[in-house]
Amino acid sequence: MPKFHKHIFVCCNQRPATDPRRCCDPAGKADLQRAFKIKLAQLGMKGRVRANKSGCLDQCEHGPNVVVYPDAVWYGHVTAADVDEIIESHIIGNKPVERLLIPDSCLNAESCPHKQRRGD
Amino acid sequence: MPKFHKHIFVCCNQRPATDPRRCCDPAGKADLQRAFKIKLAQLGMKGRVRANKSGCLDQCEHGPNVVVYPDAVWYGHVTAADVDEIIESHIIGNKPVERLLIPDSCLNAESCPHKQRRGD
């Protein structure tokens, strides 16, 4: 069998509610990852595309975060309402969803406008 | 800042001890992921290479499993003793560690010799 055509990692990290960095899955229920998984199963993509839980992806100020490999496409502020569009446009159509992309200038940056905003 | 040069996902999944599929991190301590993280920090690679916890990578019969993206290189039966070699040969030298590779024919396969062996 081939490698995964796309491998989607969905941050399911938790931190205490008082942590200024917040976290991507405060309820600890992996609802976003499950939404991807269910949609992929409905489309018969199991085994070709995987939606994986991940630990902290270290872009906390943009969370909830998702990264799609091998493309290395990063999405921020993703909700369950975005899952269909990401799968249809990007996973199937190879066209990343522009409106959800984390700008390259923000990735792994010491500071960015979003980081400041979360530190309010 | 650029995207991660390499993004290492280390399966930290747990299952009950009675589960025939076993799991990659029965102690639930993420020791393998931490070993990668410490070594990368020692080498000053933080922010360029990330060792991430992941949920089940779905190649359980080969575990403990590690996948390196964007290369999509899969390793099986990885232990803390392998971390230096993976980082030095693959992450720095771009030469995957052949002896630890999961064969393409096993990835996502319905059955493979390793799957049968774990079902003893």
What are the salient characteristics of this protein?
alpha+beta; 120 residues; homodimer; globular; 4-stranded mixed β-sheet
Description:
- By secondary structure, chain A is of the alpha+beta class.
- Chain A is built from three helices and four strands, in the order βαβββαα.
- The first copy, chain A, has helices at residues 31-42, 83-92, 113-118; strands at residues 6-11, 49-54, 66-69, 73-75.
- The model of chain A has no long low-confidence stretch (mean pLDDT 93).
- Chain A binds chain B through residues 1-4, 7, 9, 12, 33, 47-48, 50, 52-58, 67, 69-72, 74, 104-105, 107-110, and chain B through 1-4, 7, 9, 12, 33, 47-48, 50, 52-58, 67, 69-72, 74, 104-105, 107-110.
What's this, in brief?
Chain A has helices spanning about 30-40, 85-90, 115-120; strands at about 5-10, 50-55, 65-70, 75. The first copy, chain A, is of the alpha+beta class and about 120 residues long.
Side by side, the strands of the main sheet of chain A go 2-1-3-4
The N- to C-terminal Cα distance of chain A equals 48 Å
Q: Look at the helices and sheets of chain A and give the structural class.
A: alpha+beta
* Quaternary structure of the protein: homodimer
Main pleated sheet of chain A: 4 strands, mixed
As residue ranges, the low-confidence spans of chain A are none
Number of helices of chain A: 3
Overall, the morphology of chain A is: globular
The total count of strands of chain A amounts to: 4
What portion of residues of chain A belong to β-strands? 15-25%
Rg calc of chain A = 14 Å
* Overall residue-averaged pLDDT value of chain A: 93
Q: Which range best describes the helical content of chain A: under 10%, 10-25%, 25-40%, 40-55%, 55-70% or over 70%? A: 10-25%
The two chains with the largest interface, and their residue counts, are: A-B, 30 and 30 residues
The SSE order of chain A reads EHEEEHH
